[in-house]
Each structure stands twice: as C-alpha cells, then as structure tokens.
Specification:
With 230 residues, this protein is an alpha/beta fold. The protein has one domain: Spore Coat Polysaccharide Biosynthesis Protein SpsA, Chain A (Alpha-Beta Complex), CATH 3.90.550.10. It has 10 helices and 7 strands. A 7-stranded mixed sheet has the order 3-2-1-4-6-5-7, with helices on both faces.
Length: 230
C-alpha cells in the first residue's frame, strides 16, 4: 500500500430514522474505523438525533424523501475519500469494515458490497415476506450478472463502501432503498469495478424492516429495468 493510499480518509455514513434503540451501539461499534462519522437523519420522531449528538458525531437532516435521498446527501456532506454506508439497526457486523474497504485501499475496486449470500443472513429467512424479498433479490442479481458478465451475489445490501469521487459521477436518482441496486448497476454500466466480501447480517436490533413490499415492489422492478437496459 502506498503512502497516498494510507492517507485516504474514511467517512462512515449511517442513514437513520427512528432507530433510538440501536443507533448508540452502532456508533460505538464503528468509531474505531472512522476518520469521520456522519448520521443522516430522516426526521426521526424518537431520540435518534439526540443520541447521535451525545456521541459527538455530525448529524444532518435529509429532506424526508427516503434512504436514497439520504445517500445522495451524504455524497456531498461527507469529507472522506472512501464512504462506508452501514445501517443504523444493528444488523451489520462493524468489525467487517476493514475488509470492506481493503479492496478500495489496494485500488482493486471502486465499490465493495458486503455479501449476505456469502456471509449468511438472519433477516432473509423465517416467513413468507422474507422469502419473497430473497427471491426478488436473486432474480435482480441474476439479470445484473448476465447483463454485465459478472458473478456477484448481493445488489441490495446497504452495508457497502465506495470511492466518493466515483459515487459523485453516478448521477444517482432513486429516493428509496432502490438506490442500492441503482448504484451497483451504474457502477458496472460505466465500466467501474465492483466486488464483494462476505459479511453476516443479523436480526434487526429492534422492530421489523421498514421496507414494505406492497409499496416498494413496483419501484424495484421499474428501477431495475430502467438502469439495466435504458
């Protein structure tokens, strides 16, 4: 690793909305890996912001449109050369951050996703709703792999690292969690390099996923086809 690579700044970005039960523990877990921590808050109605402020991290309010908007806002607000996105619900293994950013530091990738199929997931099994989510992700991933000649396994996981300079070139548009598949597809379409590292996903620390399949499935299909082929 060169001296210039050693000097790359890492910003850890945590999009959060009503995650008071878990945000403090996540912040404690990630602090050792960060040069900067940035919480993008989706106008939480609980104590999420006050807990983050008590930890001394920077908190920025988004415009209330969803996670995708929070991600786009972070691209402009963060100071790091490398951005690590991690969810606020405690489902991700913060100790995997070094292996997540290693391919970026070695200049072997531009986007690195934490792969749940390779690392295991407690959130993708157990009921019909989770099964449908898993099946939909497999179909989306299969099309991405054949379209771009890659062999990746996870297009949806929010736990990922990306070069900020590259992310700013992607012209990301999605306002919801569909931004994750948009990011991967655009990385590949523009000829940048994407890879994965295994990482286990745990059950949320509190409550259920905020993603509603009844409201979100049509947008997932639309954005998938739009960015994949048009």
């Amino acid at each position: 690793m060169s001296d210039s690579e050693n000097k790359l700044i890492t910003s850890i970005v945590i999009p959060a909305k009503d995650e008071a039960a878990t945000i403090g523990g996540v912040l404690d877990d990630v602090i050792q890996y960060a040069d900067e921590i940035l919480v993008i808050d989706g106008h939480s109605k609980d104590q999420t912001r006050s807990i983050a402020n008590s930890k001394g991290v920077r908190v920025v309010l988004d415009g209330g449109l969803g996670k995708g908007e929070a991600v786009r806002l972070a691209l402009n607000e963060a100071k790091g050369d490398i951005l690590v996105f991690i969810d606020a619900d405690g489902s991700h293994e913060a100790s995997d951050i070094p292996k997540l950013i290693a391919p970026l530091l070695a200049n072997n990738a531009d986007l690195v996703t934490a792969s749940r199929p390779r690392g295991g997931s407690d959130e993708m099994t157990g009921d019909f709703d989770r099964f449908i989510r898993w099946l939909g992700q497999q179909i989306i991933m299969l099309a991405i792999n054949y379209r771009f000649g890659v062999r990746l396994t996870d297009s949806q996981n929010g736990f990922r690292a990306i070069r900020r300079s590259i992310a700013l070139k992607l012209d990301l548009k999605e306002n919801t969690t569909t931004i994750e598949q948009e990011m991967l597809i655009k990385i590949l379409r523009l000829g940048y390099r994407a890879t994965e590292v295994p990482s286990h996903e745990y059950e949320r620390g509190a409550g259920r996923s905020k993603i509603s399949l009844k409201r979100a499935w049509l947008r997932y299909i639309y954005s998938w086809l739009r960015y994949l082929y048009f």
